[in-house]
Amino acid sequence: MPAKIFIDGEHGTTGLQIRERLAGRNDIDLLSIPAAERRNAGLREELLKAADIAILCLPDDAAKEAVALAAGSGTRFIDASTAHRTAEGWVYGFAEIARGQAAAIAAAQNVSNPGCYSTGAIALLRPLTDSGLLPADYPVTINAVSGYSGGGKAMIAQMEDRNRDDAITANHFAYALTLAHKHVPEIVAHGRLTRRPIFTPAVGRFAQGMLVNLPLFTDLTNGASLASIHEALAAHYAGQNIVEVVSPAVGTALPRIDAEEMRGTDSMKLYVLGADGKGQVNLIASLDNLGKGASGAAVQNLDLMIGAA
User: Fold this and answer.
1) What are the backbone dihedrals phi and psi of residue 207, each rounded to the nearest 5 degrees, phi first?
2) In CATH, what number does 3-114+294-305 get?
3) Could you tell me the sign of the dihedral formed by the alpha carbons of 111, 117, 118, 120, in that order?
4) Residue 151 pLDDT
5) In this predicted structure, what is the pLDDT of residue 187?
6) Are 301 and 294 contacting, i.e. CB atoms less than 8 angstroms apart?
7) Is 219 exposed, middle or buried (0-12, 13-18, 19+ CB in 10 A)?
8) Mean pLDDT in residue range 29-37
9) Where does the pLDDT of residue 254 fall: very low under 50, low under 70, confident under 90, or very high at 90 and above?
10) Which of 67, 91, 111, 116 is catalytic?
C-alpha cells in the first residue's frame, strides 16, 4: 500500500520542490490542500492526522503546532524548519553524518531536516571532530554564500524584480551581522563543537547553489595536514554516493569553484585545498541550497523512512 504523505506548507519554495521530486511516484499517495483552502485549519489537522508521514515546510512556531495537532495519531514527521534540529527525541536527518545514521532515520518517528548552511558546515566539521584532528574548542570561522532562493518567495521576488519598491539591488550581500544566525546551534551540536563558531552568511544574485568555506590553521589542530584531513573526510564518507570528497590534486588544480556547480542535484562535493607546508587548509562544501540543503534532503529522508532508499 502506498505511504500517505502530506506536505504541510506545500505552496512554499521548499514544499514546491519536494512536490516536484515526488511527482509521478507510485509508492506514495500525496495528500494535498488546494491553494484556496490553505487557511482551512480543520482540513489541515485532518490531513496531518491521516498521513503516514507529514513533511513540515513551515515557520518554526507553525511546525511545532503541526506536531501538537497530530499528537496521538501515529503520524511521523520530517520537519524542514529550525524548530527541532537540536530537540530531544528528533533524529537529525543527515544520513551521511555518521555510521548508523541512515538506520536511525529509517526507524525514527520524528526527523529534523538540516539547514542548508549547516549541511555544508557539518559535512566538513564532523569527520574532523570525530577523528580527533580538530579540537572541539577550535576557533572555527565559517563563511558561506547561498543562492537567493533560500530566502523564500519574498526574497525571490525582491531579487528577480528590480522595479519593486522593496527590491534588493545588491548583487551580493552579507547578513546575520550580529553573528546570531539560526543555523549556529545545530552546527555546534552536530559538528560536535564546544566553542560557538563565527558564521558569516551571504546571498548572491543567483537562484540556487551554495559554497560553505571552513579555513583552518593546522598548528591549532591535533597534528592535521592537508593529506590527513582529506583522508579523514574520505574515510568518513566511504561507501555512499551522496557526498563526494574531491581529491586534493583535482581540487587544487581548479582556478575557481562555481557556487552553482551543484545546482539541480541532491548531492554535495567537499574540497580540501591549500599548499603543503604552509600551515593552512581551506575546506569548501558545494551544494544546492534547495537540493541537499533542503528539499532533496527531505526526500532522501522520506525514502529512508518508507524503505525506498
Assistant:
1) -75, -50
2) 3.40.50.720
3) positive
4) 92
5) 98
6) no
7) exposed
8) 87
9) very high
10) 116
